[in-house]
Amino acid sequence: MRRSSPSPELGSAAVEVLVLGVLLLVPLVYLVLTVAALQSAAFAAEGAARQAARSIALATTDAEGRTAAESAVTVALADWHVDPAAAELTVRCSPDPDRCGTPLGTVDVRVRVAAALPLLPPALEIDAPATVPVDARSVQRVSMFAASP
Fold it and tell me: Which listed site, 1, 15, 103, 129, has its alpha carbon 20 to 30 Å from 119?
């Protein structure tokens, strides 16, 4: 038996599901992309700091150690697809700040990465920051048998 007048709500459930699905799915996808970008930057910064500290602590000269540390940071960032220009490397040595190879000294390396938020065009002028700073620190002790220059 056919109805003489169709209901005005016929087919509206499909439209509601589609609209609500898009409204809920888009922020969820953006959240997942943002968390993935921040996690990538955190892993890159941590790996870069660790390898840079090891490179300096094991080097025979300061110049060689700093060159190896910069190379290690570049490689670690490239592994996680993080732009090396967005990173800042800071090295502190103790007890002598000018000589990192002092036996039983410590090398303190900090890597700061500016993690870019996904899907934000650089030309967009907004008051909110387009990057999130991610810091990592690693401290490595120099061997007591290291050759002091």
Answer: 15
